[in-house]
Design brief:
The protein is an alpha/beta fold. It has 20 helices and 13 strands. The chain has helices spanning about 5-20, 25-60, 65-75, 80-100, 100-105, 120-125, 145-155, 165-180, 185-200, 210-225, 255-265, 295-305, 335-340, 345-355, 370-385, 400-405, 410-415, 420-430, 435-450, 455-479; strands at about 135-140, 160-165, 200-205, 230-235, 265-270, 285-290, 310-315, 320-330, 330-335, 360-365, 390-395, 405-410, 435. The strands form three sheets. Strands 6-11-10-9-8-7 form a six-stranded mixed β-sheet. The chain has a five-stranded parallel β-sheet with strand order 2-3-4-1-5. Strands 12-13 form a two-stranded parallel ribbon.
Length: about 475
């Protein structure tokens, strides 16, 4: 460079140094200052570009964007402000996950450490919490919790280690895995390792705890899961502090509640609107009256067409089988006693609806203290039926509301006005069932029975069956 060129460069540097307040430096120091300043500028520019790219990446999609698209296209009715607030929380979580996907090891195709088993747990003495907290959504029945979580889940990249499952089904899988690893020093750690290897983001629908065995398992299981970096997104009708309320040995369950609140943002959907009851309602096969059993059998025969209904068996879990009194063409026929008055549970009902898409259920009674266990099973049956989008034909002794009139929570029982007649009060009390879990679950069950019998639900069910038949026919043609 010529001497004139050098003078121009140093003159320019001097001006920048004076404007930056770095006067009083030597010539070489001024050049170093300029180089450092250029590096800082480049670093700042790169950070700005990176931030802009990240903003473009996260704003490109997500549950809130998809929700607005569906509203605009008429696929969804516009929700209330409570739903929009919840979607904002889900969008925030979505953006955080996209930004921290590598740190959370969400990509199924990326290398991940082999961390399941007892050896890994001993090599790592410190927990490896996720840098992103999960989300626990709770609120009243029919407020759209499941729909909103599914909206969130469906927008996540397909190559992520993610899983969406109903809580009943999740616990059945856990107990099955525990049976497989029976005899190990800490089988729950191994189970947690297998779960986290399959999915880092775990979405559980209808989180509820009613069983002491589940309560004790959840406490230790999620301690391991959170330590392995699991991110939990859950929906529930109950706030975390009200889970397993009044349950046996609840003090042993309380650490799980504390961990849940620490590892998840807790958000209440405060809407009082039950969107399930905004369907057309009472368009299905919910028949009130025991004298309609013959009519129910006629409807069942119409649905199976030319098929002949015969006794069948379905596989459940661990080699168990469920006897089906009558079944044909995807339709099963049970009396209420055969399905809910026997020691059956969620595993049996999941097995049933894996093979049958329609259930005819005869003789649903009004629930009270005398048939409390059957009421619990019926609630579980409806949950599993709804999860599997199955169709229901039934006869019942009353409307969905009437069936649960005698089921109340502790607080509702305290607020009940006493009868003027001691005899009528005694008769009422004799069959009044005070049960917090059933008391909370009844609203969900009533809401779901209403939706299951709506025109919209039945049209969706018919479309699902038509799509399934079309796939089968296509496979036959290709074969």
């Amino acid at each position: 460079m010529s001497s004139g060129g050098k003078k121009k460069v140093f003159s320019k540097i001097n001006k920048e140094i004076k404007s930056s307040g770095a006067s009083g430096l030597g010539e070489s120091e001024r050049v170093i200052f300029r180089v450092k300043k250029n590096k800082a500028n480049v670093k700042s520019q790169r950070a700005k570009v990176k931030h802009q790219r990240r903003e473009r990446k996260t704003s490109r999609g997500g549950p809130l964007v998809e929700y607005e698209r569906r509203i605009a296209s008429g696929e969804l009715v516009e929700g209330d402000s409570c739903q929009v607030d919840t979607l904002t929380e889900l969008q925030r979580l979505y953006d955080e996950l996209v930004e921290s996907a590598d740190a959370c090891q969400l990509d199924r195709n990326s290398e991940k450490p082999v961390r399941s088993g007892w050896l890994w747990s001993r090599l790592l003495s410190h927990p490896s919490y996720s840098p992103v907290k999960g989300l626990y959504l709770y609120g009243g029945v029919g407020t759209g919790k499941t729909m909103l979580m599914d909206l969130f889940f469906d927008q996540l990249p397909s190559n992520w280690r993610k899983k969406r499952i109903h809580f009943h089904d999740f616990m059945l899988n856990v107990h099955s895995m525990l049976q497989k690893h029976k005899g190990l020093s800490d089988p729950l750690d191994v189970v947690a390792g297998e779960i986290s290897d399959d999915a880092i983001l775990l979405c559980l629908d209808e989180f509820m705890v009613t069983d002491v065995a589940d309560a004790l398992v959840l406490n230790r299981l999620f301690r391991h899961l959170f330590n392995k970096g699991i991110i939990l997104v859950a929906t529930s009708n109950r706030a975390p502090d009200n889970l397993y309320e009044g349950g046996l040995q609840r003090d042993l369950f309380l650490p799980f509640i504390a961990a849940l609140k620490e590892r998840c943002v807790v958000h209440e959907i405060g809407s009082s609107i039950d969107y399930r009851k905004m369907t057309s309602g009472e368009q299905g096969f919910y028949l009130v009256g025991r004298d309609l059993s013959d009519f129910l059998k006629q409807k069942f025969q119409q649905l199976i067409g030319e098929g002949t209904a015969t006794p069948q068996e379905v596989e459940v879990v661990m080699g168990r089988k469920l006897h089906v009194p009558l079944g044909a063409n995807g339709c099963a026929y049970f009396s209420f006693e055969e399905l809910c008055d026997r020691p059956l549970g969620a595993a049996d009902y999941f097995g049933l609806f894996k093979k049958f898409h329609t259930l005819a259920l005869e003789g649903i009674p009004v629930f009270g203290l005398h048939n409390k266990s059957a009421a619990h099973r019926f609630v579980t049956l409806v949950d599993v039926m709804y999860e599997n989008k199955a169709r229901l034909l039934c006869t019942a002794d009353g409307s969905p509301q009437d069936l649960f009139e005698k089921i109340v929570t502790v607080s509702e029982a305290k607020n009940m006005a006493p009868r003027t007649s001691s005899r009528s009060r005694k008769n009422d009390d004799s069959n009044l069932c005070v049960d917090n879990e059933l008391g909370f679950a009844k609203d969900r069950t009533i809401s779901r029975l209403t939706e299951i019998n709506s025109r919209e639900y039945l049209e969706h069910h018919a479309a699902m069956l038509a799509e399934k038949k079309e796939r089968v026919d296509q496979n036959v043609l290709e074969a």
